[in-house]
Input
Amino acid sequence: MQSLTGKLSLIVLCVAACAGSALSADEQPLRTSPEVGRHGGRLVVSQRAEPKTLNPVTAVDSASRDVIRRMSADLIHINRQSFQTEAALAESWTATPDGRSYTLRLRRGLKFSDGKPFDADDVVFSFQVYLDEKVHSPQRDLLVVGEKPIAVTKLDSYTVRFEFSKPYAAAERLFDSVAMLPRHLLEPAYKEGKIAQAWGLSTAAEKMAGMGPFRLKQYVPGERITLERNPYYWKVDQKGQHLPYLDEVTFLFVPSDDAQVLRFQSGESDVISRLSAENYAVLARDQQARGYTLHDLGAGLEYNFLFFNLNDDTAGRLPEVERKQAWFRDIRFRQAVSAALDREAIVRLVFQGRATPLWGPVTPGNRLWVDTALSKPPPSIAHARELLKSAGFSWKGDTLVDGSDRPVEFTIITSASNNQRRQMATIVQEDLRKLGIEVQVVPLEFRAYVDRMMQTHDYDAAIMAIQSGDVDPTSDMNVWISNGGTHVWHLGENKPATPWEVEIDRLMQEQLITLDYKQRKRIFDQMQEIVAEQLPIICLVSPNILVGAKNRLENFRPSILDHYTLSNVEELFWRQK
Amino acid sequence: MSRDRKMWAIAAGLVALHAAALFAGFLAPYDFATQNRSLAFVPPPRLRFVDNAGRVRLRPFVYGPRLHQGSFTEYEEDRSREFPLRFFVLGEPYKIFGVWNARLHLFGIDEPGRILLMGSDGFGRDLFSRLLYGSRISLFAGLLAAVLSLGIGLFLGAFSGFYGGWQDDAIMRVSEVFLALPWVYLLLALRAFLPLRLNPAGAFFLLIGVIGFVGWARPARLVRGVVLSARERAFVLAARGFGASGPYLLRRHALPQTFGILLTQAALLVPQYILAEVTLSFLGLGVAEPVPSWGNMLAELQQYHVLASYWWMLLPGFALVPVFLGYYALANLLHERVKFVVP
Output
């Protein structure tokens, strides 16, 4: 880990437009400055599922996106190491002071992977497709800011202007991972209204093209998909050699995590992402002998939490749940539960030390936005008991009883297929037993679990995890604003149910239009403090991002942002044996 | 050893196993739910008779575990203090048959040591204690469920085979439906209708009910076949000719012939049902944490790292071996005996 961070600090991406010897005079490639590598070789990675489509416009599942993103490129990119935006297909950009209009200048002389030129017409076409309501692209929601879609205008062949209906703090970040589409290939399908059906898995490789480092070579159903080097890729290294270095990237479809571990261990795959802490320990034992290295990147963006059912549509419909909600709605009860929980024990027992305890929803991995001033009290049964006493609870023997002498007991639902969350629930159960609360852990099949949480609201408490898509506060808007789709503890609120939810709504809306980072950080810190105090969700831990790669693979720079291991796939190369 | 004596020996062994399950509280040194968070995945200790100085001790002792530096799950022996094994010690409270409070345990060691005979699981709970407590659920759930499904199977199968006609058709068609249904999905649906909160006793009887009720079709069809052929045997026809009534024929001539089949089925079903509990626990229909059962203890092994790193977690699996062997051997001997008695 030490040597890895050392390496990272040396790597600075510079944006140079000078032409190298291997380039024609009118080309403006992006010059990168990692270690200069050599061409050749093949990278094999395993992934959980097969892609469902190769169409960047309609792909929703991560299996499809992971493959598509190796074949496509965006205008402005989020640097996976610094988390800041950087130039990509757009060589530079300017914004008006009110933050409502952005002018992007494109690199000149770039070509799609089929050799056809890329210019402003492709950009305008791409956004036209993404923003078209009839296409139902999942990207559309991101590109609609303040209820109005972004207006895209071509100024000349290499300049495009984007206008927002109101200032939007995360405007530059919107462009990340929005793939630029080849107008010459997709316009006919779009005009016929068949863009959603285009570029399926059966489409011939020569009918597809992108701006990414790789292009499709072969898809073998149920087994693998192979990508080959894009000879027209727009990045060069310090010596002027065209990237990517690798000739091929193969995605093997390996459905279970354990099977992926076995493949990596035996050397059949070269890189592994999303390792669990237990499997990390298993693989770490023979990393020297087998010639691979594992990396612990520290906390990722996932936060695991316990929350109580605070929905109000249970009234009259679910009397048992409604009765218990009188406890759950009392902030002192939630604080007592939080005070009793031993988060370090979860880190130790469930993650073998490879996780970070949390007292708020922003993980330390998100170093740009985490509020480091949040208090991190150690578990205290005494303090929890005081809180419960002040809330009118008392003890009969060992059992905690409420004001009307009823024993305090509730169930925690978790997903049966997730071992780690089941283990967390068992630890929570034991901790609360010390308070005299009898908790029953109910692992449910995934669909039944989601159904209870999101539809019927027939549950007492649940343990779940949310993985933020980006470091920016806007990425979790849905969780925090009171009418958000993932406002899990209380769904479908027409207006905020509590004064602190009013305040969270206000802060989240305010940060959305505040352009200054420091000011915005202050607002978001305030929001984190409210969550830590009111505890709509009781945050537990954030698992560390654990990855591994063969030692011979150079320029391997994993990131806690998606994709953990392949975000710089164009720079990877094999050291000579 | 004569066949009879062998049979009684095996039966006595099985009874002893079940008795051990009933007296789990006394035999186990600790409660099944007590977590000891600094002792996760501790391997079984070595019982020692020779101390550091080379002296031989009559009373065996163990050393406590100590974490390797920088590791969360690798231990070494802490040789600074010996913990001699003591018998009939007072320890964590438990209940005999769920009624009488008691604190006496068969063995234990002095605090702060913990005797983890079979090591500990990921929460630092004593695996040996959990295995004993778990056998209460697993052995009796398997046994009672087998009795239930054989009972239903015998009743419906004999009725169907002996009387035939439309009753036979109806029962056999229903049994085919039972054999063809995708049970896992139906049970998932069933779980959605049940209340989330099931106390361990409720879960135990639910387990028995579900397993026993799902499994009746196969024994019923086997019994029906035997009864059907018995009905047409010459001596049965002769008895009928002498005016024997239906229930008499069934009891005296047809049913005794099914005993062999039933015993074989029982021998197959009990172990099978002990394993069925694994699946049901996974679906949330079994007993829930922290109550142990062999099923949910074995379910831990579905994780590769547990299988690869902590061999003692496999021990509950080995506990199944004597149980299975005992049941199979008993069934075999009973089968031969029954064959010998029945003409």
In short: The longest strand of chain B covers residues 56-67. DSSP finds twelve helices and five strands in chain B. The two ends of chain B are 25 Å apart (CA to CA). Chain B has a mean pLDDT of 84.
